[in-house]
Amino acid sequence: ECYDISHLYNLAHFADRRLVKAPFFIQSVFGLLGGIGPHPEDVLHMKRTADRLFGDDYRLKFMNMNVLSMGLCSSPYQSAWILRHHAERFKKKLPEASLALIQQSYIDDINFGALDVSTCRKLLQDIKYILDSASFSSHKFVSNANEQILKDIDPKDIVTADIVKILGISWDYK
After folding, report:
1. Residue 137 and residue 148: Cα distance in Å, rounded?
2. Interatomic CA distance for residues 163 and 128, integer angstroms
3. Given this model, what pLDDT does residue 66 score?
4. Is 5 exposed, middle or buried (0-12, 13-18, 19+ CB in 10 A)?
5. Contact 54/24 with Cβ under 8 angstroms?
6. Residues contacting 134, CB < 8 A, separation 6+
7. Burial class (CB in 10 A: 0-12, 13-18, 19+), 160
8. Cα 111 from Cα 101, distance rounded (Å)
9. pLDDT per residue over 123-159, tens digit each?
């Protein structure tokens, strides 16, 4: 699955090192936050890049996320689609939480904040409400104000390590 041009280059890198072998079946999803857009020029750019990197040794399948199919093992793009779908459903009722989920989520990390403790607590409650409505279990909570922000969170779901990784970046939150 290649959601962006860089993923094609990653595949070419693995092929050059003989970790994967052609022919490749490349599946691409357009219109996801953080991935390539669904505009025809974006799709053509992806196709031209694949042509240049793999020649005739690949088959490319494009999907736009208007319909969601589920299998036994969900892919990350399916989870992202479901998360976005549920956030959109709550756009009028919980606009700040909806916007945070749409704009500040990547794969399984949601990184958000607020200017004051009470606003952040409310935002956290609303985000958890939306996630619960989609049957997403939320865990690994961390805050630079744990005692104030996370006091209603089950202690087993709170990160206790001194340094955590968010989006692959180490954060010393204390």
Report:
1. 22
2. 23
3. 46
4. middle
5. yes
6. 82, 83, 85, 86
7. exposed
8. 9
9. 999 998 998 887 777 888 888 887 888 888 888 888 8
